[in-house]
Write a structure and sequence with these properties.
The chain has about 550 residues and is of the alpha/beta class. It has 18 helices and 15 strands. The longest helix has 27 residues, at about 385-410.
C-alpha cells in the first residue's frame, strides 16, 4: 500500500515540474521551452529578439544576441522599466519575445503577433494579462513581446542620440525577428496578423502608416486605438524633455544638454521621475511620452516622418484590416476623475488641441455645440460623470478608428471590417473594478479577457462566457487564417460584411452577432464635422 501512495505522490510531484517542449533551432542558436500545464501547447518564453542597454538608451535596438549550447526559454520577463504603484520595476535588458505553439499541429500555421497596450507608459507581453490558451487552441501560433515604454521608449529630441520612437522601433525589430525565425516553430512567415489594443492598436496603426512593416505583416486588427487619435502623438516632445529635466533639477531646452543629463541618470531615476503636464484650455491627454514625428537623420531609420493622418492618406494599397471599439470606452477614463477635476472641465474645451481655430471666439462657439450635445448646456459636475464618460469615449477611442477606417476604404482596395463590442459577462474585468460596475455595456479593455486567458483573472469560466470566448476567438483566428473572419468555405451561418466607400457596416459583437449601421450617428456627425473643418495640420 505504501508503494501505491508513493507512486501517486511521485506522479503528483512530476506534474508540478515543467515538462520540456521540443528544442527549436533559430538564427541565434538552439532553445528549449516547456509544455503547458494541460499539454495542449508549447511555450518558448523570454527569447531575446533585440538588445538595448544604458549605452544605447533612447535609440533603435541592436541585433539580438547569439548563444552556444541550449537557451532555456522558460523564464518569463514581464516588463520593461515602468512604475508599478510607487516602485520602478523591470530592467533595460527587456526586449524579449514569447512564442506559443499548438502541440498537435499541421504546418505551417498562421501567426498572430500581439502588441500590448498601456498608454505607451506601462504593461508587458506576459501571461499576467495575455495568456495564450484561448487563441492557440484555434490552431494559430501566438507571439507576444515587450517593448520599451515611457521615457525609455518615447523620449524624443529629434537628434542622432535621441531620434525618438525607440519603442516603435522595438516593435519593428520584433516583427523582423518573427519573419526570420517563426518557421522554425512551425509558423508561416507569409501569414502574419498583427493586432493590438489601445496604445497597442495605435502602434499597429502607426506601423501601417509607414513602409517599415511592408512584407512583415499580412493583416491587422486594431482594438480601441488609432494613430490619428489625439493621444497617439506628441507634437511638442522638447517641452516634455524639458519638464523631465526640471523634475531632475535642471533647466534647459538644449537637446544636447538634455541628452547629456538623461544619459548620466540611472534608468530607475528617469522612469521614476514625477513629471506633470501643464493644463491648458484643451482636453488634451495628460500622457507625456508618446510617439513623435522624427527628423531625417543620416544613419538613423525614421518611423514617423509626417502626421499619421497625412501618411495614411498617401496609402494606395493595404492589407485586410479590422477596426473596432467597445460600447462604453469612456468608463475607463472617467473612473479616474476627481470631483475637482470634473468641475474644472467647465472652464475647458470638450475637444483637444489636435484641432486649430483662427480665434478663441470661434473655439468657444464650437465648444458650445459640444456642451449642448453632451450636457444640454448644464454645468458639468460629478453627477454628470456618465455624460463625461461619453465625451472621453468618443474623443479618445470611438471616433478616431472610424475616421481612420474611412481613410482606408477611400484610399485603398483592402477589405475593411468594423465592429462594436457590447458583450457583458463575468470577464468584463476593467468595468467590474471601476465605479461603473453596475452600468450597461463594455468598458475600454473588456474584450481582452475573452481573447486572452489572463493570469490576472484566473476564475472559473461559466458556460455563457465560454461560448462567447469561442465566438470571438473564432472570428479573430479566422481572420488570421483567411483574411476573412467569417469565410463562406467554413459553412459559417453568419457573415461579417466589410465596409465599403460611403457604406459603413458594423458587426455588433454580443452573444448573438448581428450586422448593423454606424453606431451613435449623431455623435459621429458632430466629431466628423469638427475634424473636417479644424484638424490641426501643423507638424510640430
Amino acid at each position: 500500500m505504501k508503494y501505491k501512495y508513493l507512486s501517486l505522490f511521485t506522479l503528483f510531484a512530476a506534474n508540478l515540474v515543467d515538462q520540456p517542449a521540443p528544442e527549436v533551432t533559430i538564427a541565434q542558436g538552439i532553445l528549449s521551452g516547456k509544455t503547458s500545464a494541460d499539454g495542449s501547447f508549447f511555450e518558448y518564453i523570454g527569447i531575446p529578439y533585440a538588445t538595448t542597454n544604458s549605452n544605447t538608451r533612447f535609440k533603435a535596438p541592436g541585433p539580438p544576441p547569439s548563444w552556444s549550447g541550449v537557451y532555456k526559454a522558460v523564464d518569463e520577463i514581464h516588463f520593461c522599466p515602468q512604475v508599478l504603484l510607487i516602485n520602478v520595476i523591470g530592467s533595460e535588458d527587456c526586449l524579449k519575445v514569447n512564442v506559443y505553439v499548438p502541440a498537435v499541429r499541421r504546418k505551417p500555421l498562421p501567426v498572430m503577433v500581439y502588441i500590448h497596450g498601456g498608454a505607451f507608459l506601462f504593461g508587458g507581453g506576459g501571461k499576467l494579462f495575455f495568456g495564450p490558451d484561448f487563441l492557440v487552441k484555434k490552431d494559430v501560433i501566438l507571439v507576444t513581446f515587450n517593448y520599451r515604454v515611457g521615457v525609455l521608449g518615447f523620449l524624443c529630441l529629434r537628434t542622432k542620440d535621441v531620434p525618438g520612437n525607440a519603442g516603435l522601433k522595438d516593435q519593428i525589430a520584433a516583427l523582423r525577428w518573427v519573419k526570420k525565425n517563426i518557421a522554425a516553430f512551425g509558423g508561416d512567415p507569409d501569414n502574419v496578423t498583427l493586432f493590438g489594443e489601445s496604445a497597442g492598436a495605435a502602434s499597429v496603426s502607426l506601423l501601417l502608416a509607414t513602409n517599415s512593416v511592408d512584407g512583415l505583416i499580412n493583416r491587422a486588427i486594431m482594438q480601441s486605438g488609432s494613430s490619428i487619435a489625439m493621444w497617439a502623438l506628441n507634437r511638442n516632445p522638447l517641452q516634455v524633455a524639458s519638464l523631465l529635466a526640471k523634475s531632475l533639477g535642471y533647466d534647459t531646452e538644449d537637446p544636447s544638454k538634455l541628452h547629456e543629463i538623461f544619459s548620466q541618470v540611472s534608468y530607475k531615476e528617469l522612469v521614476g521621475a514625477k513629471v506633470e503636464k501643464p493644463i491648458t484650455k484643451y482636453l488634451d491627454t495628460p500622457l507625456l511620452y508618446l510617439p513623435c514625428i522624427e527628423k531625417s537623420i543620416p544613419g538613423e531609420e525614421s518611423v514617423i516622418n509626417d502626421l499619421p493622418y497625412n501618411m495614411l492618406n498617401k496609402k494606395n494599397k493595404s492589407i485586410p484590416l479590422i477596426y473596432g471599439t467597445n460600447s462604453n470606452e469612456g468608463y475607463f477614463i472617467a473612473n479616474q476623475d476627481t470631483d475637482e477635476w470634473i468641475e474644472g472641465i467647465n472652464e475647458r474645451y470638450l475637444f483637444a488641441s489636435d484641432l486649430q481655430f483662427e480665434s478663441e471666439e470661434i473655439a468657444e462657439m464650437e465648444n458650445l455645440k459640444f456642451k449642448k450635445f453632451y450636457f444640454d448646456n448644464e454645468k458639468i459636475s460629478p453627477n454628470k460623470l456618465l455624460n463625461l464618460s461619453e465625451v472621453y469615449g468618443h474623443l479618445y477611442f470611438k471616433i478616431p478608428p472610424i475616421l481612420e477606417s474611412e481613410i482606408m476604404t477611400e484610399k485603398t482596395d483592402a477589405r475593411i471590417y468594423n465592429y462594436y463590442f457590447e458583450y457583458e459577462g463575468g470577464r468584463n474585468f476593467l468595468k467590474k473594478i471601476s465605479k461603473f460596475a453596475k452600468e450597461k455595456g463594455a468598458s475600454h479593455g473588456d474584450e481582452l479577457f475573452y481573447l486572452f486567458n489572463a493570469m490576472l483573472q484566473p476564475f472559473r469560466i461559466n458556460q455563457r462566457d465560454a461560448n462567447f470566448i469561442d465566438t470571438i476567438t473564432t472570428l479573430w483566428t479566422n481572420f488570421a487564417k483567411y483574411g476573412d473572419p467569417t469565410p463562406k468555405s467554413k459553412d459559417s451561418k453568419f457573415q461579417w460584411i466589410p465596409s465599403r466607400k460611403n457604406q459603413k457596416n458594423f458587426l455588433y459583437i454580443n452573444e448573438k452577432l448581428r450586422m448593423g449601421p454606424l453606431p451613435e450617428p449623431e455623435a459621429y456627425s458632430l466629431w466628423k464635422y469638427i475634424y473636417d473643418k479644424y484638424r490641426n495640420f501643423k507638424l510640430y
